[in-house]
Amino acid sequence: MNGVQRNGTPQRIAELTRIQEFCSAHRLHSPHLTDEENKAIFGKCNNPHGHGHNYKVEVTLRGPIDYKTGMLVNVVDLHQWIQAAVMDPLDHKNIDKDIDWFESNCSTMENIAIYIWGRLKKVMGDKSGLLSAVKLWETNNHFAVYRGEEIQ
After folding, report:
1. Among 25, 102, 104, 111, which is least packed, fewest CB within 10 Å?
2. Shortest CA distance to 68 belongs to which of 5, 131, 1?
3. Which uninterrupted H or E stretch holds 35?
4. Candidates 26, 29, 106, 138; catalytic one
């Protein structure tokens, strides 16, 4: 619509965020480091038995508001995408043992956010271009944000 809605009013851009909590276990252990290097870098988080977190993920979409519905997307759709991309694979799972992607990627909060981004892009289909950010809280004190950026 070239940025113009009906009656000549400008099309508005909005952000929509859904927050979802999930519980997972993991062990910070990089396959690219020796056991000694892993212990030195990750300390107690390198415990062979792992540890758990109550994660919080914020999924943010950004795009034009549909003048017919008044919505960026239907929040029911957003909920279903998060269920498929986050809850089904991650909730009450051992990230390192249950998800193949983490066999070659250390389960840091940064990498978990990247994993969630990739899953969301797949399940969102033609709406995947609206994905703006994945913010993953590992604790109340720190989080990682991934916006799909890569260095070439």
Report:
1. 104
2. 5
3. helix 35-42
4. 138
- Residue among 23, 37, 92, 110 flagged as catalytic: 92
**Size (the chain), residues:** 152
Whether 138 is a known active-site residue: answer yes
Each residue's pLDDT tens digit in the chain (152 positions)? 455 566 677 889 999 999 999 999 999 999 999 999 999 999 999 999 999 999 999 999 999 999 899 999 999 999 999 999 999 999 999 999 999 999 999 999 999 999 999 999 999 999 999 999 999 999 999 999 999 999 88
Token pair for 150: 């890569």
Spatial distance between the Cα atoms of 96 and 105, rounded to a whole number of angstroms: 9
Q: Which residues contact 152 (CB under 8 A, 6 or more apart)?
A: none
Give dist(CA 67, CA 7) in Å, integer.
11
- Among residues 45, 53, 79, 110, the one annotated as catalytic is 45
Sequence-distant (≥ 6) Cβ neighbours of residue 104 within 8 angstroms = 31
Around Cβ 103, how many Cβ atoms within 10 Å?
Answer: 9
